[in-house]
Amino acid sequence: MRRLLNLVRTLARTLSIGTLTLLGFLGCFAGSMLRRVSPTSGLALRNQAMRWWGISLVRVVGMRVKVEGSPPREPTLMVANHLSYLDIPLLGGLLPTTFVGKADLRGWPALGAVFDAAGTIFIDRGSKKDLLRVMDEVRTALADGLSVIVFPEGTSGRGDEILPFKPSLLEVAAASGLPVAWATIHYATPPGEQPPSESVCWWGDELLLPHYLRMIRLPSIAATVRFGAESVRGEDRKEIARALYVAMSAGFEPSL
């Protein structure tokens, strides 16, 4: 009976996710097209579509979201620990935002097109020249009224600790005097289910599909997003990274 329930849950949720992703893509694409004639209206439509997609998707996977602290009210550069592909709809549903993500995200089935249409800033971490372009795009997004979220660990972890930061993307804050806000993410699963480190956090070399099939069978997921009370400023990206790491580590709850 449990296997049948898992199969039904997997099929129903996957169908819903596919439908939501298609609608989200169409909304973001329409917003992008509208920006050519009305930049303000087009950007608003694209942002609304992205937030609707994020809010709807976390509901479909059975996620209960708890927010501690207050999300930034003004457009800001923000960093967060990275645990799962679920971080994107989770944070995207909480505030008008765009993300800085690895260039290979563009190749994800279905989701890659949504991320692209939603204005994700893709970066080739192996290219120093690409960093200059990304910094310009971050400034443009902030000027457009969007917060920009960076995952400074550079990869997703298993949830037991915050991984060391890669400070390169914080150069835009150091060079421009921008404050950097922060948030930490924590996941929990129901008693008797696989721990979040194995079923929600996606880390190491595991393929996406096997992990997705474990995650989507969970009856529910509890997510806590804790926003920091104070932003960090500095003139050196490494100093900013150290200050953020200390603040986030103090507010971090392991997903174990």
How would you spell out the order of helices and strands?
A: HHEEHEHEHEHEHHEH
How would you describe the shape? Answer: globular
How large, in whole angstroms, is the Cα Rg? 18 Å
Helix content: 40-55%
- Give the spatial strand order of the biggest sheet: 1-7-6-2-5-3-4
| DSSP, total strands | 7
Largest pleated sheet: 7 strands, mixed
Compute the number of helices: 9
Give the overall pLDDT as a whole number: 90
* Low-confidence residue ranges: none
Ends distance: 28 Å
Content-based structural category: alpha/beta
Quote the beta fraction. Answer: 15-25%
What topology does this entry show?
Elements: H1 2-34, H2 39-60, E1 63-68, E2 77-80, H3 87-92, E3 97-102, H4 111-117, E4 121-123, H5 128-143, E5 147-150, H6 171-176, E6 180-188, H7 196-199, H8 208-216, E7 221-227, H9 237-250
Parallel strand pairs: 1-7, 2-5, 2-6, 3-4, 3-5
Antiparallel strand pairs: 6-7
Helix pairs in contact: 1-2, 1-4
